[in-house]
Amino acid sequence: MFKKLICMITPALLALSLTACGGSGQTNATNGAPASVGESVNYKIVGIDPGAGLMKATTKAIDTYGLEKWNLVEGSGAAMTAALKKAYDKKEPIIVTGWTPHWMFSKFDLKYLEDPKGVYGEAENIHTIARNGLKEEHPNAYKILDQFHWTSEDMGTVMSMIEDGAAPDKAAAKWVEEHDDLVKKWTNGAGKGNGEKLTIAYVAWASEIASTNVIAKVLKDMGFDVTLRQVEAGPMWAGVADGSVDAHVAGWLPITHADYVSKFKGKFEDLGTNLEGTKLGLVVPKYMDITSIEDLKEK
């Protein structure tokens, strides 16, 4: 059995929370010898929101790699990146749960730790998920959602604008304006809406904030009355399943959201991938002299 210290973090309380979970000393407190990787980060992996598939995979990694001393810190995507920036600016060691696409890879020089036991699986794709009956009730909106597809580079552009201070809807509007050819492919064959109400849910990951605001802008431009609903992953999938949400473009499959696919089987329609080639794992700054999750285990 391994012990797991859970520390709930919000960006506003980040500094206090990290202090409560332990400091970031890099030398052995008793003899001044160079610290092990674990000692240098107080056996702490900075995570995101509880219940996320990435957090479940990391809990499994702790068990699979025999990291009994290690603690997974729960919080949010914003808290994780705040902790990363704080450590990176001081060139201090830190280990975070990470995924791509994410703006942090363009802002910081980072690397994934190798996962020789394959706990985090292969690259995933992001899927568009619609409620049952949407095709029949709102065929034009359905067609746009079904044809929505872009690249990590596209998404990264929107994420970077948001991280640099642009409001998500403004960043989305700018991207849509500058990519008319691609937007025409998404709307090809779809008729205009007439103010029909649509609710699109999303989780507060930088990637999903970008994609959801972009598809919402396109749907609004096509005449639909779109409401965005920010929730956690469970309610996002449950909303589509019970019909209170029309769709989301944030289904990470086949691993991250596998539990929700199983739980709500038959209660949603998978429209397929809207982005290929995502990745999950443990991430560290490149200045840290480690390459694999195996390096976290005490010698």
UniProtKB/TrEMBL annotation:
It is found in: Cell membrane. GO terms for biological process: choline transport; glycine betaine transport. SUPFAM superfamilies: Periplasmic binding protein-like II. GO terms for molecular function: amine transmembrane transporter activity; carnitine transmembrane transporter activity. Pfam families: OpuAC. GO terms for cellular component: ATP-binding cassette (ABC) transporter complex. Coiled coil: none annotated. Residues 37-178, 197-298 form the ABC-type glycine betaine transport system substrate-binding domain. The keyword Transport applies. Residues 1-22 form the signal peptide. CDD domains: PBP2_OpuAC_like (cd13639). Keywords: Cell membrane, Membrane, Signal, Transport. This is Glycine betaine/proline transport system substrate-binding protein.
